[in-house]
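So, could you explain the following?
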Amino acid sequence: MRPTHRKRHKLKSEINVVPYIDVMLVLLIIFMVTTPMLNANVDVNLPQANARSLKDKKDPVIISVGADGKLFLTLGDARKEPIDEQGLKTKVGAFVKANPEVSVLVAGDRDGKYDGVYQVLADLQQAGVAKVGLMSQPPQGTSASDGRK
Protein backbone atom coordinates (compact mmCIF):
# COMPACT_ATOMS: atom_id res chain seq x y z
CA MET A 1 0.00 0.00 0.00
CA ARG A 2 1.12 3.29 -0.96
CA PRO A 3 0.53 6.24 1.26
CA THR A 4 -1.44 8.99 -0.39
CA HIS A 5 -0.62 12.51 0.36
CA ARG A 6 -3.44 14.91 0.18
CA LYS A 7 -2.80 18.58 0.12
CA ARG A 8 -4.93 20.56 2.36
CA HIS A 9 -6.37 23.63 0.74
CA LYS A 10 -6.74 26.60 2.93
CA LEU A 11 -10.07 28.34 2.92
CA LYS A 12 -10.06 31.69 1.19
CA SER A 13 -11.62 34.53 3.07
CA GLU A 14 -11.87 36.79 0.02
CA ILE A 15 -15.03 37.92 -1.66
CA ASN A 16 -15.35 37.10 -5.33
CA VAL A 17 -16.21 40.48 -6.88
CA VAL A 18 -16.41 39.36 -10.51
CA PRO A 19 -20.23 38.88 -10.44
CA TYR A 20 -20.65 42.33 -8.87
CA ILE A 21 -18.54 43.91 -11.59
CA ASP A 22 -20.68 42.20 -14.25
CA VAL A 23 -23.89 43.50 -12.68
CA MET A 24 -22.41 47.00 -12.39
CA LEU A 25 -21.43 47.05 -16.08
CA VAL A 26 -24.89 45.89 -17.15
CA LEU A 27 -26.52 48.62 -15.04
CA LEU A 28 -24.12 51.21 -16.45
CA ILE A 29 -25.07 50.24 -20.00
CA ILE A 30 -28.79 50.36 -19.15
CA PHE A 31 -28.46 53.84 -17.64
CA MET A 32 -26.38 55.10 -20.56
CA VAL A 33 -29.05 53.92 -23.01
CA THR A 34 -32.09 55.21 -21.09
CA THR A 35 -30.76 58.61 -19.98
CA PRO A 36 -31.04 60.35 -23.39
CA MET A 37 -34.65 59.16 -23.61
CA LEU A 38 -35.53 60.97 -20.38
CA ASN A 39 -34.48 64.36 -21.76
CA ALA A 40 -37.86 65.47 -23.13
CA ASN A 41 -37.90 69.04 -21.85
CA VAL A 42 -38.34 72.38 -23.56
CA ASP A 43 -35.50 74.85 -23.15
CA VAL A 44 -37.02 78.10 -21.92
CA ASN A 45 -35.02 81.08 -20.74
CA LEU A 46 -37.30 82.61 -18.10
CA PRO A 47 -36.73 86.11 -16.71
CA GLN A 48 -35.70 86.54 -13.10
CA ALA A 49 -38.61 87.05 -10.76
CA ASN A 50 -38.63 90.60 -9.48
CA ALA A 51 -41.46 92.83 -8.37
CA ARG A 52 -41.09 95.41 -11.10
CA SER A 53 -42.74 94.98 -14.45
CA LEU A 54 -40.61 94.54 -17.54
CA LYS A 55 -40.21 97.63 -19.64
CA ASP A 56 -39.49 97.07 -23.32
CA LYS A 57 -38.96 99.51 -26.13
CA LYS A 58 -41.13 97.33 -28.38
CA ASP A 59 -44.55 95.90 -27.63
CA PRO A 60 -44.30 92.20 -26.71
CA VAL A 61 -45.83 89.26 -28.54
CA ILE A 62 -48.40 87.72 -26.21
CA ILE A 63 -49.80 84.21 -26.62
CA SER A 64 -52.79 83.57 -24.38
CA VAL A 65 -53.93 80.04 -23.52
CA GLY A 66 -57.55 79.93 -22.36
CA ALA A 67 -58.99 77.57 -19.76
CA ASP A 68 -60.45 75.50 -22.60
CA GLY A 69 -57.07 75.32 -24.40
CA LYS A 70 -57.88 77.84 -27.16
CA LEU A 71 -54.98 80.03 -28.30
CA PHE A 72 -55.03 83.79 -28.84
CA LEU A 73 -52.24 85.92 -30.30
CA THR A 74 -51.51 89.61 -29.75
CA LEU A 75 -48.78 91.07 -31.98
CA GLY A 76 -47.64 94.53 -30.90
CA ASP A 77 -50.58 96.96 -30.84
CA ALA A 78 -52.93 94.61 -32.71
CA ARG A 79 -56.05 93.14 -31.16
CA LYS A 80 -56.15 89.68 -29.61
CA GLU A 81 -57.03 87.19 -32.36
CA PRO A 82 -57.78 83.46 -32.15
CA ILE A 83 -55.15 81.25 -33.77
CA ASP A 84 -54.33 77.57 -34.23
CA GLU A 85 -50.98 75.88 -33.49
CA GLN A 86 -49.69 75.91 -37.07
CA GLY A 87 -50.61 79.58 -37.52
CA LEU A 88 -48.91 80.36 -34.21
CA LYS A 89 -45.65 78.78 -35.35
CA THR A 90 -45.78 80.56 -38.70
CA LYS A 91 -46.74 84.06 -37.50
CA VAL A 92 -44.62 84.21 -34.36
CA GLY A 93 -41.62 82.64 -36.10
CA ALA A 94 -41.77 85.22 -38.90
CA PHE A 95 -42.36 88.12 -36.48
CA VAL A 96 -39.43 87.13 -34.24
CA LYS A 97 -37.11 86.70 -37.22
CA ALA A 98 -38.02 90.22 -38.36
CA ASN A 99 -37.75 91.66 -34.82
CA PRO A 100 -35.20 89.58 -32.84
CA GLU A 101 -35.30 91.92 -29.81
CA VAL A 102 -39.06 91.59 -29.25
CA SER A 103 -40.25 89.85 -26.06
CA VAL A 104 -42.44 86.77 -26.36
CA LEU A 105 -44.75 86.15 -23.40
CA VAL A 106 -47.13 83.28 -22.65
CA ALA A 107 -50.21 83.97 -20.54
CA GLY A 108 -51.94 80.82 -19.27
CA ASP A 109 -55.35 80.79 -17.62
CA ARG A 110 -55.10 79.87 -13.94
CA ASP A 111 -57.87 77.28 -14.30
CA GLY A 112 -56.48 75.86 -17.55
CA LYS A 113 -54.46 72.70 -17.97
CA TYR A 114 -50.67 72.90 -17.87
CA ASP A 115 -50.56 70.81 -21.04
CA GLY A 116 -51.81 73.78 -23.09
CA VAL A 117 -49.01 76.06 -21.90
CA TYR A 118 -46.43 73.30 -22.35
CA GLN A 119 -47.57 72.71 -25.94
CA VAL A 120 -47.28 76.45 -26.70
CA LEU A 121 -43.73 76.47 -25.31
CA ALA A 122 -42.83 73.51 -27.55
CA ASP A 123 -44.41 75.23 -30.57
CA LEU A 124 -42.46 78.43 -29.88
CA GLN A 125 -39.22 76.47 -29.66
CA GLN A 126 -39.98 74.88 -33.04
CA ALA A 127 -40.73 78.34 -34.46
CA GLY A 128 -37.21 79.49 -33.50
CA VAL A 129 -38.03 81.64 -30.47
CA ALA A 130 -35.01 81.66 -28.14
CA LYS A 131 -36.43 83.47 -25.10
CA VAL A 132 -39.93 83.12 -23.66
CA GLY A 133 -41.41 84.71 -20.55
CA LEU A 134 -44.43 83.58 -18.54
CA MET A 135 -46.96 86.22 -17.55
CA SER A 136 -48.57 86.42 -14.14
CA GLN A 137 -50.46 88.86 -11.97
CA PRO A 138 -49.33 89.98 -8.54
CA PRO A 139 -51.47 88.68 -5.66
CA GLN A 140 -54.35 90.85 -4.45
CA GLY A 141 -53.16 93.59 -2.13
CA THR A 142 -49.56 93.51 -3.38
CA SER A 143 -47.98 96.61 -4.77
CA ALA A 144 -46.31 96.01 -8.14
CA SER A 145 -43.55 98.51 -7.39
CA ASP A 146 -42.10 97.12 -4.19
CA GLY A 147 -43.36 93.51 -4.00
CA ARG A 148 -44.65 93.91 -0.40
CA LYS A 149 -48.13 94.12 1.07
User: Anything to note?
Assistant: The radius of gyration is 30 Å. Residues 41-48, 144-149 have pLDDT under 50 and may be disordered.
